[in-house]
Specification:
21-stranded parallel β-sheet, mainly beta, single chain
Length: 477
């Protein structure tokens, strides 16, 4: 595509003008707030690892990258907040935050009761590899308009909440979408481990737990409905919870834009309380689809009604001790070789919004991931037994291999197979699990795709050929 000269000039000018600011002891700027009013659109702020006491800031520019270097930069608020809102007030658009620890942002005067590690009032936010603890809220907000998307990954939330039940480990407002993946959220104080009013929620491969000493409310609360995919998570309710159900959907009214659909796929859900409800949905929910989940412990499986209820291959076991988990009391929910969940699942297909309901990853503690490749028939629950070597391994001993390469002449993406002429199914997913391309029953040693249909980014390709299963990651540049 030919780029207009005026556009090319503006892009080059923007790239040339972007600046990296360095913050830390012994540097020109010794604390993040010292540069928050100086940065311009597109700048990067690198903050040295260390503790910054009582330093709060408002970031108003757009396309910023704010990151700790040499380890996490710890913003210890010491019960202060910018504008009585948070350690960092985010009012700019498309800001990325990485390697930052946010702690001890409490409204001790009891006037607002909802200060936060991050108070988001701009649009679009990405948070990666951060740690939020001992605040009134970990993250609060989600954007100034509904046209906002939040992505949170590899991040821990712990002991956030004022204790009044209205503040939480994180609380996302009515925005377009939340992607919450590979995180560890636990021990919220009275409030929820995760509360989101987003229109679309993808809650993928997390550990969301109350644990033995926690007094949190719901593990997941989605009060206004919308499209929700909850897949590959470890979800646990402790004995001291302040709410008897683990997952709530639409319980403050189905006011989000339709479709009001819940997809609960390949989760391991444990109730360590003496009673309760695993899932509660509002009457009027359009669809509740639950496949391949372990429901362990006492309580009702589902409360409320949906127009369509589609459930298959879920395993209900009232005694957690009899579930066949490696160490249930230590929250290691990998399967023992004797577990009845092995090879008992079923293909869950694709959600109505086009996302694959085949889990690609598993949660790895703490706040990380590993790949999941089904060994035989998919197992029930968040873990595949015997799948310990990661995504790029071949679960069966075989000489089969394939390579991914591109051809600039015809703009194609090609898979070339060695020693595999048999019929095979090939599927390509993006990193959120969305199915982007598929070929079925192909015997050729070369399979080509149109690369122009794939945006830049990381993808996963899966190949199923009878006894052989192969999965790999590749990058489109």
């Amino acid at each position: 595509m030919k780029v207009p000269a005026t556009l090319l000039f503006s892009v080059l000018f923007f790239a040339a003008s972007a600046k990296t600011w360095q913050v830390g002891a012994g540097k020109t700027y010794t604390k993040p707030s010292a540069v928050s009013s100086l940065v311009q659109n597109g700048d990067t702020v690198e903050i040295d690892a260390g503790t910054y006491v009582g330093d709060v800031a408002n970031w108003i520019k757009n396309n910023l990258v704010l990151k700790g270097v040499g380890g996490m930069a710890h913003l210890y608020a010491n019960n202060t907040a910018y504008g009585r809102k948070g350690i960092w007030l985010i009012t700019g658009t498309n800001i990325k935050i990485e390697n930052i620890e946010f702690s001890h942002c409490h409204d001790v005067a009891g006037l607002d009761l909802n200060w936060a590690g991050i108070r988001m009032q701009g649009t679009d936010l990405t948070v990666k590899n951060c740690y939020f603890h001992d605040n009134d809220n970990g993250i609060l907000g989600g954007g100034s308009t509904s046209n906002s998307n939040v992505v949170i990954s590899y991040t821990e939330f712990s002991h956030n909440g004022y204790g009044d039940g209205y503040s939480h480990n994180l609380y996302i407002s009515n925005i377009d979408s939340l992607i919450f993946m590979h995180n560890y959220s636990h021990h919220a104080s009275i409030g929820h481990e995760l509360k989101s009013r987003a229109y679309v929620n993808h809650i993928l491969y997390n550990r969301i737990m109350n644990e033995s000493t926690g007094d949190a409310s719901r593990e997941i609360d989605l009060p206004n409905g919308g499209t929700t995919i909850i897949m590959g998570n470890l979800i646990e309710q402790g004995a001291n919870t302040s709410n008897s159900n683990l997952i709530g959907y639409g319980l403050e009214g189905l006011s989000n834009p339709a479709a009001h659909e819940v997809y609960l796929i390949n989760n391991t859900i444990v109730n360590d309380r003496s009673a309760g409800t695993f899932v509660q949905v509002a009457s009027g929910t359009a669809k509740y689809k639950a496949y391949n989940n372990i429901f362990a412990g006492p309580g009702a499986l589902l409360s409320g009604t949906a127009a369509i209820i589609d459930t298959m291959k879920n395993w209900r076991v009232t005694s957690v001790a009899n579930t066949g988990l490696v160490n249930a009391t230590g929250y290691d929910y990998h399967l023992l070789s004797t577990s009845r969940a092995i090879n008992k699942g079923a293909a869950a297909g694709i959600a109505a919004n086009g996302y694959s309901l085949t889990p690609l990853f598993e949660y790895k503690h703490p706040a990380n991931k590993s790949g999941r490749a089904s060994v035989g028939t998919i197992d029930i629950g968040a873990y595949e037994y015997g799948n310990l070597t990661g995504l790029e391994s071949i679960p069966y001993s075989s000489p089969v291999e394939f390579y991914v390469y591109t051809d600039a002449y015809d703009n194609s993406l090609n898979l070339f197979f060695t020693n595999l002429q048999a019929d095979k199914d090939v599927t390509i997913y993006d990193m959120t699990g969305k199915l982007v391309a598929k070929r079925e029953r192909v015997a050729s040693s070369k399979i080509s795709f149109d690369r122009s249909s794939l945006a830049r980014g990381i993808y996963v390709v899966q190949v199923n050929a009878g006894e052989y299963f192969i999965a790999k990651k590749f990058v489109v540049q």
